[in-house]
Amino acid sequence: MLLVLFKRIFGGKPDTSAVTLDTKITPEDMVEMIRSGEASRNDFIASYKPYIAKVTSRFCKRYIDPTRSDEFSIALAAFDEAVEQFSSQAGKSFLGFAETVIRRRLIDYVRKEQRHAGTVPYSAFDQDDEEEMTVNPIEMKEALQRYSVSQDVEARRLEISEYDIRLKQFGISFGELPDLSPKHSDSKVLLISISKLLANAPELYEMMETKQKLPIKELCEMAGVSRKTIERNRKYIIAIALLHNGDYPYLQEYIQPHEPPQQEQPQVKGVRA
C-alpha cells in the first residue's frame, strides 16, 4: 500500500483540460465578448470540450466518449445554454454555473431514460437550497467522502515524500523498506519495539542523528538482544525510529501495535472476582 502511494508521488500531471484561447482572458470575459460579437461562441465551446467531458464523466461515474455519447451531446448543449443564460451579476463563476446547468440537463436525461417504474431514480432526492440551486444530499455526501479520501491520499503522498528525504540522510530509500521488513510477524514486532526504545532514549537518538549510525552496544544492552540482530536489521531499525519521532501521523498507523482482545480472568474457587 505504502509503496503504491510512493510511486504516485511523481505520477501526477497538471490539469490542462480547460484552457481558453487566451489564458489572460477569464471565461466570464469571454462570455461577455461572445454576447457583444467580439468572440466566437463555437471556438469558445470547442476549447472547453475537455472540461465538458470531464464534468459529464464525473456525473456518470464512468468514462464518456465525446465522439459517440448521448450524455456528452446533452452536456455540450447545456454548456451552450449556460453561455446564453449566465449573469456575472449573480456573483458566480461561469464554470461553476455551467457545471450546474450541465448536471441539471443530465439529471433530466436520466429521469427520461428510467426504464423501471419501480426504481427510485438517484435524482429523486434533489432539493433546492437557499439560493434556489438544485442539490442532492446523497450526492453531496458521496462527494464529501470522495474529497476526504483524496485529501488523505494527498497527505500520505506528502508524508512519504518527506519521509523519503529523511531516510536518505541515513543512506536508506523508502522504496527498499518492503525488502528490509522482516517476513515473520514476531521478528517485526521485536524490531519495532527496539526502534521505539531508540526513539524514546534522547541520548541514543541524538547519537544516531549526529553520527548517522546506530549505537549498537547500548541498544543490545537495553533490548537484551544479540549484536547480530541489531546489525542485520540496522536500516529497518533506523527507519522505524525516524518514523516514531517524525511528524508522520498517517504512516505511523502502520506501526501501531494491535492489542489482542482481552480475555476474562479465570476465577479461583472460593474467591469472587
| Basic shape | elongated
* Largest sheet strand order: 1-2
Instruction: Please mark out the parts with pLDDT under 50 across 5 or more consecutive residues, or reply none.
Output: 1-23, 116-121, 258-273
Q: Give me the Rg, rounded.
A: 29 Å
| Total of DSSP H or I helical runs spanning 4+ residues | 14
Q: What oligomeric assembly is this protein in?
A: single chain
The profile of the biggest β sheet is: 2 strands, antiparallel
The proportion of strand residues reads: under 5%
What is the residue-mean pLDDT, rounded to a whole number?
76
Reading the helices and strands in chain order gives: HHHHHHEEHHHHHHHH
Number of strand segments: 2
Which class of secondary structure composition applies to the elements? mainly alpha
Helix content: 55-70%
How far is it from the N-terminal to the C-terminal residue, by CA? Answer: 45 Å
